[in-house]
Write the structure tokens for this entry.
Amino acid sequence: MVGFTNLKNGGKLMVAMSKFDHSDLDGHLLQLLLAVHEEQSVTRAALRLGVTQSAVSHGLDKLRGIVGDPLFVRAGRGIVATARADTLARRARLLLDDLRGFVTAGGFDPATVTENAGLTNIRKRCALIGFDATCTSAPREGCTWVLQERS
């Protein structure tokens, strides 16, 4: 496994890294890769993601270390994706679509649950798909559920 270290002259030095654990990848890194790939600019990607340029650069360094590729190279005033970054961006789009599908899988709708399901069970099922569930009426009268997406 290789990684990159910033040099004082602005260049990067490829160095050996410890073994990569696939669990270091997450949706945020995939979104970051796509934003930089589509915007062809760290600055515009940062604006799009609502983070600092430094956060985008740090995320790119982490991705570079994970995949062992520079991903983007300077070209004039901008950056250009490497062939590996192009391939990874296509895969990242598919993975993010799968993650979105994972969240909505099962079609659970608390409004269709019978009263026997139990409040705890409903709250747990909502939590699994990323929502907090609150019953706004007396449970014996049949709950009216309010869902709030977790941040």
About this structure: The chain has two domains: 2-104, 110-149. The chain has a mean pLDDT of 77.
